[in-house]
Design a protein that fits this description.
Blueprint (H helix, E strand, L loop, with lengths): L4 H12 L12 H11 L4 H21 L8 H16 L7 H26 L8 H10 L1 H28 L8
Length: 176
């Protein structure tokens, strides 16, 4: 399987950008998983973003003083794998509306799944009723807004840089 240096470089750079200080939930990870799914080949699309996350999580834990892995880590990583899967639908596309729709879908599935799990695992915050679930989702709306903004910002940067650089410096990596 042929390596795609531009796609690999942008994927690695995207995940490493999470080490740069940023507003809460305004991170490149969701967009990078989507981009990796769209532009990396085969197994690389799934393994490389998760491997870089697994390496940077302990670094972030050391920098900010929190445990790098929690019981939510498998759920979070699973959501990023779903974003890779969503990105696979963009492999031969440079369509801005399709990329935007995939970006929104990736953000939405992350919001629904992670907050659903928070509600399910909560023993004190939310009642295990429909009202409790709705309260959990409502409380998470500000986080969803920042996640959505970060995903759109970074997806625009990654897909835009890829489109521009693939025409200028890496013509073999035009979406196909």
């Amino acid at each position: 399987m042929r390596m795609r240096p531009l796609s690999l470089t942008l994927t690695v750079a995207g995940v490493l950008l999470r080490l740069v200080p940023h507003p809460p939930n305004f991170t490149p990870v969701g967009a990078t998983a989507l981009y990796g799914g769209a532009r990396l080949k085969g197994w690389q699309a799934y393994v490389i973003p998760l491997l870089i996350m697994a390496v940077t999580d302990p670094l972030l834990g050391a920098i900010y003083g929190f445990a790098p892995f929690s019981r939510m880590t498998p759920i979070i990583y699973g959501c990023f794998l779903l974003s890779v899967l969503i990105g696979r639908t963009l492999r031969a596309s440079e369509s801005v509306p399709r990329i935007a729709a995939a970006t929104f879908l990736g953000s939405l599935q992350f919001y629904i799944i992670t907050n659903g799990m928070i509600w399910m695992r909560s023993t004190r915050l939310y009642a295990h009723t429909l009202d409790g679930l709705m309260a959990c989702y409502v409380a998470a709306l500000p986080f969803f807004g920042r996640t959505l903004a970060g995903d759109f910002f970074y997806a625009t940067a990654l897909f835009g840089l890829h489109a521009w650089l693939s025409r200028k410096a890496f013509p073999a990596e035009v979406a196909a």
